[in-house]
Amino acid sequence: MNKKLIFSGVQPTGEIHIGNYLGAISQFVDNQDNYESIYSIVDLHAITVWQDPKIIQSQIHHVLSVFIAAGLNYEKNIIFNQSSVPQHAELAWLLGCTARIGWLNRMTQFKDKAGKNRENASVGLYTYPVLMAADILLYKATHVPVGDDQKQHLELARDIAHKFNVDYEIDFFPLPEPVMNKNTRIMSLRDGTKKMSKSDTSSYSRILMTDNNDDIKTKIKKSKTDSMKMPSIDSALDERPEISNLLNIFSAASGESKEDVIKKFAEREISEFKSDLTDVLINLIEPMSSEIKRLIADKSFLNEVLKKGSDRAKSLSTVTISELHKLMGLKIL
Ligand code: TYM
């Protein structure tokens, strides 16, 4: 029914780390020749938790600089910040009338983020997955590259699209498919059972795309491990989450399969592995980090990219919204 179209989003909160890069942004770049693609810097999602108005614009510029430095083609792809296309918020309302409360109650990310004090979390944090569904469905996207922490939200987007199609007896929205890399749930460098996250209080838990070589060296050196030698088989990793995570990072950052990396370092000292991992990460990050620093200084160029992207996104999304108005019997004039 629809041609293949990618949509994905990244929140402008905190600095982009290698989890975001290896789990999502590198896939945006890898897929850009095969699909029409739309990438949004999702500021409306960011404000579900309070953000300082004085810094949010620079966070948006930061994410855009990472996209471009990573190799995302800003002329071919549509790249924009979400709040500049108000149709996202409108569709979120329309779809909020299709989504069921029971479905939202199952979202584990809300439970994790709201914590014990759920009554005090914002309504936006609770309905966040409906806005995410709206982001994707506004463009009738068919494929969504994301890290595996977003899988449940994507299943919800499919459920909403399906129920909408059934309720209005029309094949209006395609059911979007996740696009995920193997083994790229990147975990904290301080705790192999916890996701690497922008909001972790320890800066040693994550490697940033703007880290310099010394930062990378120190963070890998200090990363939590055990005192055994490197494993020689995959099954030995079940009890060693930190080593498993570092092997995943090595594999994703170098492009070598995890099996090959395990073989290469089998029975060797962890310190030798860490030293090679540092080199792999420096090779990956050094060119990008200097490009990010160059781009971030050129605000007028970055704003021009966002303006062009939002104009293109707006013209696509107004078509979907007027189709919906007609279909749902809304708007007389
Ligand atoms: P956000 O901003 O938290 O993360 C951006 C992308 O990075 C991935 N990611 C990770 N991947 C692997 N390991 C990690 N430790 C890791 N941490 C983050 C995320 O899975 C994501 O792909 N809700 C989304 C943003 C969003 C969106 C959308 C995505 C809003 N609307 C529509 C896709 C389609 C989020 O909070 O991503």
Describe the structure.
The chain is mostly helical and 333 residues long. The chain folds into two domains: 5-185 and 298-327, Rossmann fold (3-Layer(aba) Sandwich), CATH 3.40.50; 203-294, Tyrosyl-Transfer RNA Synthetase, CATH 1.10.240.10. It is built from 13 helices and five strands. The protein has helices at 18-31, 43-46, 53-69, 87-96, 101-105, 108-114, 123-137, 151-167, 213-222, 241-254, 258-265, 270-296, 299-328; strands at 5-10, 36-41, 78-81, 143-145, 177-179. Strands 1-2-3 form a three-stranded parallel β-sheet. Helix 7 (123-137) crosses helix 8. The longest helix is centred in the last third of the chain and has 30 residues, at 299-328. The protein starts with a strand and ends in a 5-residue tail after the last helix. It binds tryptophanyl-5'AMP (TYM). Tryptophanyl-5'AMP binds next to strand 1, helix 1 and helix 7. Tryptophanyl-5'AMP (TYM) is lined by residues 7-11, 19-20, 23-24, 42, 45, 132, 135-136, 144, 146-147, 149-150, 153, 184-186, 195-196.
Search tags:
single chain, 333 residues, mainly alpha, Rossmann fold, Tyrosyl-Transfer RNA Synthetase, two-stranded parallel sheet, 7% strand, binds tryptophanyl-5'AMP
